[in-house]
Amino acid sequence: MRYCGDIGVLITGAAGFGGSTLTRELLAQGYRVTGLDIVPPGHAFLLRRELSNPNFRYLWKSVQDIQPGDVDGHSVVVHLAAQSDAPLAFDSPRYTVMQNIEGAVALLEAVRQAGWVSKLMFAASGNQIGRARYLPIDEDHPLTPHNPYGFSKAAAEMALGAWRLAYGIPSIVLGTGVVIGPNMRREVFIFKWLWDALHGNPIVVEGGSQTRDLAYIDDVVRGWILALQAPAEEVVGQKFFVGSGTEHSIDFLARACRDAIGNEVPIEYAGFRPGEEGHREAFSVEKARRVLGFTPEHSPGEAIALTAEWVRTLL
Ligand SMILES: NC(=O)c1ccc[n+]([C@@H]2O[C@H](COP(=O)([O-])OP(=O)(O)OC[C@H]3O[C@@H](n4cnc5c(N)ncnc54)[C@H](O)[C@@H]3O)[C@@H](O)[C@H]2O)c1
After folding, report:
1. Which residue owns the Cα nearest ligand 1 atom 6?
2. For the segment 166-201, what is each residue's pLDDT rounded down to a tens digit?
3. Binning pLDDT at 50, 70 and 90, where does residue 4 land?
4. I need a labelling partner for 79 at 20 to 30 A (CA). Which of 106, 169, 240, 299 fits?
5. Domain with 174 in it
6. E strands, 74-182, where?
7. For residue 264, how far is its CA from the centre of ligand 1 (angstroms)?
């Protein structure tokens, strides 16, 4: 175990899927962690063990109200807080935009006024790229979001770039496609398919031919920590993709979910979600491999199998 008790890490969105997994791993490595989230402490179930860890502090507040004093004492900030649900954003685009853009700008301002953060890391989404102009998508690909969620995250990423150029805020962007694993959000299609198959219900696929880069949470968290530990001069101002580096159709992933559960349930097809037809997604992890030493260790099939094991425990 590496002792890092002198480095304070502030994680926004710490009560969520990615935030709680990262919190656990950083505490295990000896870091001091502050988790900020709007989830009340009594409902922060994914952090129930961490809440009593002396190296962990929970700040129950919105990132939109973050103050420089909340940032003080942390040399690294990881910004994960977001309205992270793409389907919800179709029905609540204004709320999503307000959360994700205002949250990023409030954090940037607090970091600017706090003054001594060495890295501000941001979790970017594949939705920010939207309709890829070429594959695999690399870090130079323009942001061309194809839905309100993607727009909100792309705007937040652009804010980070603007504050870096204007004020020298040391931002790093870490992008992934779909991330799955234990404690994942139950609104994500992979969870729904595993859950339906487990209950003997049909798997409903919206579209089918569109593709995704599906990554396992442990790989993504390892990528984030590699960036956190890398020399600042090698990573600040840079973007990295820390996904699986693979492309699979939604249809293929649905079949993998059915195989992982082992129930021969029917697969039914519904129409594409708006903007989804023709969508293709595969990220190059070459830059992350070269600069961070990142290698994804789980194929999408393995990620689904491990997630299925966890889903079974929920019965
Ligand atoms: N899970 C994925 O597939 C995926 C893929 C790419 C990028 N991301 C990004 O990674 C980050 C984490 O994703 P996740 O899957 O853990 O999502 P999540 O929804 O599980 O976690 C997000 C957390 O942010 C909190 N939050 C929301 N608004 C807030 C606010 N105003 N102030 C403080 N906290 C707030 C939520 O309560 C939640 O605990 C998000 O920024 C998301 O956009 C996720």
Report:
1. 125
2. 999 999 999 999 999 999 999 999 999 999 999 999
3. low
4. 299
5. 8-181+216-243+284-297
6. 76-79, 119-125, 171-176, 178-180
7. 33
CB-ligand 1 contact for 39 (6 Å cutoff): yes
Q: Determine, yes or no, domain membership for 176.
A: yes
**Ligand 1 contacts CB of residue 15 (under 6 A):** yes
What is the Å distance from ligand 1's center to 258 Cα? Answer: 27
pLDDT digit string (tens) for 236-268?
999 999 999 999 999 999 999 999 999 999 999
Give the closest residue (by CA) to ligand 1 atom 28: 82
| pLDDT at position 274 | 85
Closest CA relative to residue 239, chosen from 112, 125, 113, 144: 125
> Is position 239 within any domain?
yes
Encoded tokens for 290 = 């070269």
pLDDT per position as a tens digit, 98-153: 999 999 999 999 999 998 899 999 999 999 998 899 999 999 999 999 899 999 99
Q: Using CA atoms, how far apart are residues 274 and 289, in angstroms rounded to an integer? A: 34
Of 31, 58, 149, 216, the active-site residue reads 149
Nearest CA to ligand 1 atom 43: 84
Q: What is the CATH number of the domain that holds 21?
A: 3.40.50.720
Mean pLDDT estimate for the chain: 96
Is residue 99 lining ligand 1, measured as CB closer than 6 Å?
Answer: yes
**pTM for this model (two decimals):** 0.97
Domain count, the chain: 1
Model pLDDT, residue 130: 87
CB-based contact 148:93 (threshold 8 Å) = yes
Q: Is residue 138 in a domain?
A: yes
Amino acid sitting at position 24: R
> What are 49's two structure tokens?
């063990």
- Nearest-atom number in ligand 1 for the CA of 62 is 32
Question: Is 149 considered catalytic here?
Answer: yes
The partner residues of 125 in beta bridges, in order of sequence, read: 176
